[in-house]
Amino acid sequence: MSSTDPAEKFVDDVLLDAVSERARTAPRRRMNHNLHRDDDPVHRLLNAIEPESYVPPHRHLDPRKLETIVVLRGRFGLVLFDENGTVERTVVLGDEAGAHAVEIPVGRYHSIVSLAPGSVFFETKAGPYVALSPAERAAWAPAEGEPGAGAYLESMRAHFLSTSAPATLTGEVP
Question: In b/e form, how buried is each residue of 155-174, taking b as 16+ CB within 10 angstroms?
């Protein structure tokens, strides 16, 4: 934390419960809780995502936007795609999954699926916040709110429901 921060910031069960409750009642079924200021060079936030939330596949092209996710509660399915939208890898992250964190390289198409209510992860990436550009959005997947978005979410979720044992992260993300 910088010397201008007035106090320590703790992530405890009370905060995780509050962010999860806000996600449960939010129209998009997810909610961020920023731990950073808008002008901080590194953004740090909690991201609560409920199972009904669709996070469209995307990538970050800015070389500073390496994304790190650490699961604090619940379970998530990470889906990694090639340039054409073919699923190359799926990994379960979180409670009892054997993998708890991932660093996603710049330029890698990815999405995340909540596999349990009340799931929350901690995310870091370089600031400032900039909305995704058209080149960062996956043209082969529906955007949030478009027809087919719900079916696409279910197709991603199926990668995790059809296996009896969760995939685990071994080494670096290709």
Answer: ebbebbeeeeebbebeeeee
Q: Taking the domains of the chain in order of start, what are their residue ranges? A: 13-161
Going from the C-alpha of 7 to that of each of 38, 41, 135, the distances in angstroms are: 17, 19, 39
Look up tokens 């996603």; give the residue: 104
Q: Provide the pLDDT for residue 94.
A: 95
Stretches in the chain below the pLDDT threshold 50: 1-3, 164-174
pTM of the complete model:
0.88
Tell me the CATH class for 13-161: mainly beta
Encoded amino acid at 165, one letter: A
